[in-house]
Queue: 4 jobs
Job 1
Amino acid sequence: MAADSQPQTTVVIVDDEESNLVSLRKIFQKEGVRPLTAADGQEALELCRQHQVHVVLTDLMMPGMSGIDLIKALRTVAPDAETVVMTAYGTIETAVEAMREGAYDFVEKPLKRMQIVKTVRKAAEHHALLRENRTLKQELSVLRKSAGPRAIIGSAPPLRRALDIATQAAPSTATVLILGESGTGKELLARHIHEQSGLAGPFVAVNLAALPETIVESELFGHEKGAFTGADRRREGRIAQAAGGTLFLDEIGELSPAVQVKLLRVLQEGEYEPLGGHTEKASFRLIAATNRDLRAAVDVGDFREDLYYRLDVIAVTSPPLRDRRDDIPLLVDHFLARYCEKNGKPTMKVTRSALDQLMAYDWPGNVRELENVIERAVVLSKTDTLTKEDLPTAISSAERRDEQMTFPLGTPLHEIERRVIHRTLTHTAGDKQLAAQLLGISARTIYRKLGAEREAERATG
């Protein structure tokens, strides 16, 4: 518990024997801990009111207020503080009672220096873990409320890289091409770019793969009354609807050659002609997306090369879920909260074994498939806990592999450390003690690095 960039641990030591207070004060001072001493429970409560206390180390048998009474009072005065009780030989039953009342642990007298230091260290780390978990839940709750169903959930490096590029590109007028498999959230990235662009106009999305080829041209460019059989009134196209805003063309690789030519003209000249109409000016920002290899389509003549280069000004890749497994627990929590609320059910929990299977599966349908699986589980589950048995057979039977991580040559050491720590914490379900054991470092090192990471994120906005 040597002092470092983390806030110094404060421990209140409570004992009616002055010699014990003096001895324990010296021990914790040498360990870099801030010790505050109290001769009785009332004095300890006053110290907890005046200071931010992480751990209370108290004797059980004291005149006046006992250790048990102090633990009960701390629930109101310092509910976040962890309590460790000191008990003499023959009073173990009383110590167990103290733990039922909320004590973190107990140590037997006569005290051993290493044991008391280790126990208080673990209590302080548990205190920090609970506070961090509470903070993360609050942040996730705020994110859900502010972003709603269109939230981009996750912080895995591939997703962060995509968001960084998207955010940098947003204020420009450059065309953006979003690449990625189906179900990875390409439209969410497009909406993110639009929301960060500052454009006053609307976000207009068109899924070209869902439109019959015969109506794509009319849908995009619009038509005048009588332009073709059945055109009994004028129709405004999506290009006109997106004026002053963003036009998002999903599955751009599905455009026919004839419509490719017309779209190229819009991008080159800034104008277009509705079917049966006259030339009109176009004023929109284009974002396109595809799950196809457009470069390969160009090589075989299925996609115009000049249009491809017009679209591929800034390319962003929306990563598949199998490349961002660290985000699966967050996504599961997000979808559980959404569909429990939608179906009028209390928010469900997820078991460790179920989460292991969700992490092991390769998700060919990506985030959309995960969302559908969670919705199905919420609807069909008869309990308030999502278990392995609630999952489809393909997922519940997926074999968990030993995970490997690879890094491009030249990756900064601090980034490698950060990713390894996050991946290990995902594996241990957030248990920093276990993660530290697996990594061969102290839990304090993990707290320090995570704290530095959060400070850096706050500094960069």
Job 2
Amino acid sequence: MTLITSHLPELLILLFLIITFAISVIEKFADWKGTVTYIKETFKNTFISPVIKPLLILLVFFEVVSSYFLINGFFHLLLSGDNENALYGCVFSSLTILSMLIGQRIAKDYPGATSLGVYFLISVFGVFLLS
């Protein structure tokens, strides 16, 4: 119980990021065609429109890697107090969100880009707490 209370802020941040990224991956796999259609429509008038599918696959890969380290890190932190994987999870989450931010800016979706700021701050705060 002392591991939970001594790492409660970190565990809550990890849970938030796990929910964020794991559900995102599940949604993308559950409706891959719909996701590709939506992303193609969003970026249709940009210079990256010819490479949407590879970029989307790369984004899903980053989300899967982030989810792996976040879930693994959550349990390591909870059970043994080891925070290395949790730190990697927060770092990968931050990098994934930055890549999404680049995409939102390219698409000129400024409200979408703004909303990513909250996720980025939470993941960077996780990096801060786990460093």
Job 3
Amino acid sequence: MEDADSTFVEKVKPGDFIVAGKNFGLGSSREHAALVIKMVGVSAILAKSVARIFFRNAINQGLPVLICDTDKIGAGDKIEVNLATGVVADITNGSKLTFGKIPKVMLDILNEGGLIPYITKHRDFEL
């Protein structure tokens, strides 16, 4: 994140969201890219599009990645995300955005905190 904002690490707080444009995570083929974002406390990433490998790694790490039109979200806006309904509410400007329904198995993985906690608890997938 340092290339995009050299003060990111100083500003990010647990519960924050990353709001991005197109191709977020492009070139990040290792799970560590998603893991360190989760470790600093980011709750979710909202982006217009995301690199496929980064997307799957993020889900496996328990970090939601939501594909939606992020143009209406301003820097510093307070937002709330409901993973079950697929709605992002921008409390600051009153707008509501939608993102694609998250498949049940992926939602279950996110709710358990990632793939390893999910497999440790359930030992298998219920498809």
Job 4
Amino acid sequence: MASTQKKYATLASNTLLFAISNFSSKLLSFFIRPYLSYALDSPDVMGVSSLMQQATNLLIPVVSLGVAYAVIRFGLDKAVEKASVFVNGAATILAGFALLLAAMPLVRLIPNAAGYLPWLYLCVLASCLRTLCTQFIRARMLNRLVAVDGVLTTLALLVYYLVFLSWLGLGATGFLLANACADLTSMAFVFCAGGCWRYCKPRAFDRHLWADMLRYCLPMIPASISFWVINASDMFFVQAMCEGYGGRSGNYWVGLLSAGYFLPQVITIMGSIFYEAWQLSAVTEEQDREAFFSKIFRVYASGMFCCVAGVVLFCRPMMHLFKAEYYGGWTFVPFLTLCSMCTCLNQFLNSVYVVYKRSSGSFYTMLAGAVLNIALNWAFIRLWGPWGVTPASFISLLLVFLLRAVSTRGLLRIDFHPGWLALNLALVLGEIWCLMNLQNWVLPVAALTAVVCAVNFREVYSLLQKLLGRFLRRPAQKEG
């Protein structure tokens, strides 16, 4: 019983640590997008910037070969030499970047990429190196340093935005430069403060370990690309298929869609804070895993549904934070919020594959979702214009969740409480319908939000009890 309470306490303590330490960085990042609506002048410019950012996100797993997943998984393994993990990860990234340089003629074919190639390449390399360093210090359980780095990186990004966008007025080029410089700043800080330089030992390169790491992470590349197809290809579909729709350019609609991601960040922020703590507990806690995963899933999903209901309720008034031209972006918010929730829950189930080193499961489930997303994007845009991409992404991510819920049962039998999940989803979908179709939407949407919170009150209350009850008893960090 004592050991059971201890693992819940450890997860609660780490979650609270990341939440408090990351609060300022997450708050800043939350308000950066409204600032960009003024700094980038128009939805067209934001559209180009967002497309380049998503192109970067597509290239990152290809260049890194997904090695960041292997760095934290093998880095948490006490029997593995950590210097070998770090050196192997760095070698993988440098080799992948060399291949990307050779593939420049292909990269130029990405829409809008030809005019931004140097900055695009810089963003990719900076992000890969930063991820290597941050995942490595996570594997060494330097959780407070991770939190400090989050604050530093967001402050640096804001400063670089002010310099390159507000002061120099560089537009989309400045947007890419700011992101690259922020990642490089973070990498340099973590590399020095986290003592990563002590592990830069070329002789520590281990071919056998490298082969094991590649076997683990290579299936993550198509999985990451599939994830990108579901979450980011929407922008490229909108740009290509909505040119001239409503008398606007494709880049304009991409800019509105990008603005619509603002409020769903609440869900993403909550999920990222939790997952930073969860990925440590999921791997290191070995006793009564089924009960542990089942309990945490129920509490986690309850918090997610409450947040989704709240975001849907407040999405229209909150969009007034943006420049007036972006207000129409609220119509993208409801289903994007559901997409963010599904992404977080899928990430939770992915931790089962991580624990048992079955990364192929992550690949097959994401691939199925990506194929469905491509078909639905094409069909729904033809039916409903640019707004069709958001329900397409939601349905695709829901398929991924269902497939993972089934496939993980061969590894770990989690109790998902399907009736409870279906009830919550029906309430949220009803809330979205009222918002989108009723002129006097406030009262019915507020009432449904209250019902969702009531249905999930017990689990959310227990989560708050665990977090607040363990605040003063955080376990000491240990570096491996």
